[in-house]
Amino acid sequence: MSTTTDVIVIGAGFAGLTAARELTQQGRTVRILEARDRIAGRTWVENRMGRNLELGGTWVHWVQPHVWAEMTRYGIGVIAGPEFEKAYWWADGQRHEGPAERVLEIIDEPNKRLLEQTRELIPLPYQPLTNPAVKGVDHESVAARIDALQLDEEARQLLRTFWSLNFNGKIEDAAFTQALRWCSAASGDWMLMFEACATYKVQGGTVALAEAILADTTADLHLNTAVRRVEQNNDGVTVTTADGATHSAKAVIVTLPLNALGTVEFSPALSEGKQAAASRGQAGLGAKVWIKVKGKWDRFVAFGAEDWPINFVQSEYFDEDTTTLVAFGPDGNAVDVEDRDATQAVLEKLVPGIEVLEITGHSWVGDEYAKSTWPMHYTGYLSESLEEMQRPEGNVFLAGSDYANGWGGFIDGAIESGLTTARSVAAKVEQNKAQAAI
Ligand SMILES: Cc1cc2nc3c(=O)[nH]c(=O)nc-3n(C[C@H](O)[C@H](O)[C@H](O)COP(=O)(O)OP(=O)(O)OC[C@H]3O[C@@H](n4cnc5c(N)ncnc54)[C@H](O)[C@@H]3O)c2cc1C
């Protein structure tokens, strides 16, 4: 089978859906080729353990302008998460507990010191390379920057866990500039940044927003259609799918996550810069799991040691005789989302008396269409790769949260990138048309 359209969008996550909507609303024909049997990519609402759970991206905030504008457009509100009363944390080889504010107090000054150059180095979050001085710190890791603060052991360990949570990965090679970028997007206020990351959920789930965008496009959506090859030719592009079918278009928008980009063959090959960035990948290689425990627990947060398979837990849903927790760990391969006993062993070190009943989640790092969780970049990515990833090659454009300027790593970044890429594609298609007419 071979069919033609104006633009092919590979991937029906937030970047792909947004780009498709923008282009169809300008009157262009768009075909979306999506490998999975569902839309929304690294966001995924599933009924598990008796409730609709967000297995991927979840939280949004009004300081994230693109996602907020979409929610306003479709009349979708937010649901506030629980206000925490209590905290547990692991430091100096032992468990500590106290009021929730205590944990924030311990890392407040250290975080302010860590991020004090935010507004100087990244004054404009959506133009992260405006100040060339940012390149001078792009090879420094968050871990090294934290250690250089010479904090007492409790603050050092807690701050390292906090940033390992933010990166959903190990922080030894995690870019310090990525921390600055997050903080810059929150106007230099780390507490606002933290609130933006994990407080307000989308009413009806992230899928409600994805479906609203899909309903607003006339794009032709093909699910269960994995792309294997993208070839540029004189007429535009030809895309070949796993079943051998070909689809032709004037241009293609590829929204594959950075870590999955190498699964598609490009002819001609993508630039060396893009290939190098894709083969290094990004640091968000951790786990997100949902855990049902016995009894109605307090509203608590818990920070484990940085290298525990689960190093952050918060209580999220409270029923009569069970509580559902959401938890994260830095290494997706270290967490078996079906292993109740392993989860019990970690949790009881942190929260005395806790009894795990069930655990569930999705292995995003083991998922061939993601190979990662949320995009958090390694040292050097900002200065060496970001602009290159955003640079189209002929009629091939990349879009996605991994390539966003502002809240890269978030749903907001995916929408930002979908919008900007759709604009560039429309301009290129017009330019090609004008040249053909000469
Ligand atoms: C566990 C987890 C927690 C997160 N938490 C948050 C959060 O709280 N708040 C927040 O804002 N963000 C969060 N994120 C990040 C957010 O979900 C992502 O940044 C965003 O959804 C990415 O959108 P995207 O369109 O750029 O990429 P994706 O959603 O990954 O979309 C890419 C699409 O391409 C498809 N695809 C891949 N390969 C092929 C192929 N060969 N052929 C065809 N299709 C293909 C994929 O199936 C996918 O649908 C989280 C992510 C994860 C995984």
As for the CATH topology of the largest domain, it is FAD/NAD(P)-binding domain
Number of domains: 3
Query: In one word, what is the shape?
Result: globular
Query: Helical segment tally?
Result: 14
CATH architectural category of the largest domain: 3-Layer(bba) Sandwich
Quantity of strands, as a count? 20
Beta content: 15-25%
What is the CATH class name of the largest domain?
Answer: Alpha Beta
Poorly predicted residue ranges: none
Helix percent band: 25-40%
Q: Which secondary-structure class do the elements indicate? A: alpha/beta
Head-to-tail CA distance between termini: 32 Å
Mean pLDDT: 96
Bound molecules: flavin-adenine dinucleotide
Largest sheet: 8 strands, mixed
User: Radius of gyration in whole Å, from Cα?
Assistant: 22 Å
Q: Identify the CATH homologous superfamily of the largest domain.
A: FAD/NAD(P)-binding domain
InterPro entries: Amino_oxidase, FAD/NAD-bd_sf, Flavin_amine_oxidase, Flavin_MAO
Cofactor: FAD
Binding site for FAD: 34-35, 227
Family: Belongs to the flavin monoamine oxidase family.
